Amino acid sequence: MENLRNHDRVTLKLKPAGVMKLIFEDKAKDIQYIGDISPFGIMVQLNYAITLNTEVSLVHTLNNTNLEIIGTVKWVKVLDESLDKNAPRSKTVSLLGICFSPQNVKENLDFFNSLIVS
Which residues share a beta bridge with 78? Predict the structure, then answer.
């Protein structure tokens, strides 16, 4: 699986059109940023902490059409960024590496193509 991580990896310079949500444990969270994507996985940022090996779905909604992909969180980097330097509160920012389910090749390619074309 490690060699698939670098296959056809694309760094997105602009946020793709539409809306993307991460679904897990009956929660839906907005994706803040997409770092890069391949037909086998994606790196995303969101303002929520998620644990390693969590099964997730990503839903990309564009022009009233939903594309959904299933995957597993394979790596996590959690950052706490202060909202205000003088305030005690902070927000959690997570960078996630998500591996798409390898048995869903057609869905993986459709999802990949929807992001790099939009």
Answer: 94
pLDDT digits (tens, 9 = 90+) for 3-57: 554 556 787 766 778 899 999 999 999 999 998 999 999 999 999 989 999 999 9
* C-alpha dist (Å) from residue 51 to 35, 41, 62, 78, 109: 19, 17, 28, 10, 26
Q: Are 62 and 17 in contact (CB under 8 A)?
A: yes
Q: Output helix, strand, coil percentages for the chain, rounded to the nearest 5.
A: 15, 50, 35
Flag whether the pTM goes above 0.85.
Answer: no
CA–CA dist 96, 59 (Å, integer): 15
Backbone phi and psi for residue 107, each to the nearest 5 degrees, phi listed first: -65, -40
Angle at 76 between CA 7 and CA 35, to 5 degrees: 50
CA distance 40 to 17: 21
Separation of alpha carbons 29 and 47, rounded Å? 8
